[in-house]
Write a structure and sequence with these properties.
It contains 9 helices and no strands. Helix 1 packs antiparallel against helix 2, helix 6 crosses helix 9 and helix 7 packs across helix 9. It folds into 2 domains: 81 residues, Rna Polymerase Sigma Factor, Chain: A; 71 residues, Winged helix-like DNA-binding domain superfamily/Winged helix DNA-binding domain (Arc Repressor Mutant, subunit A), CATH 1.10.10. The chain is mostly helical and 182 residues long.
Amino acid sequence: MARSAPQTPDQPTSVAAGLPRDTASVARRFETLVYGIALTHTRCRADADDVYQDVFCAYHRKQPQLNDEEHIKAWLIVTTLNCARQVAASSWRTRVVPLTPEHAAALPDRFQFRTDLQQAVYWALGQLPESCRTALHLFYFEDLPVARIAEILSLDVGAVKMRLSRGRAMMRQHLQGGVFDD
């Protein structure tokens, strides 16, 4: 039997046929997923950039042995949530306060969407507790079914449904008025 040449770190590896596992390919494939979750949870472009970088650095360092694309996606979601929690809980973030309201408004890392509607939805989502925000983001923005969200977050299906229901109700309250009253 002929032996195959050993793979170098620059070569893509795969557990399943056609599944790229090198960090660059995985980053290209899942950049929107990771950055979206990071931005939703940190509410700050600079912090989301840091989380994004930390997640893919962790992937590169650990080279986790994952079975398929869904397994990679789940690993990235959990890692992104954990990194975002670390950033949110950092002593710098919890202790720094802008000097004046003008300073707060002038911060360059505030994320702005193109339309008022998008900005209002993003703002309302940011007002939710993390548990509801995570469930809504994964359900609506990542199109994951409730059962898969429950599996990724290690919750019961009923708990995910409750978080979605509560999150929708809170979003409804936050979005009443403004651009949504016609």
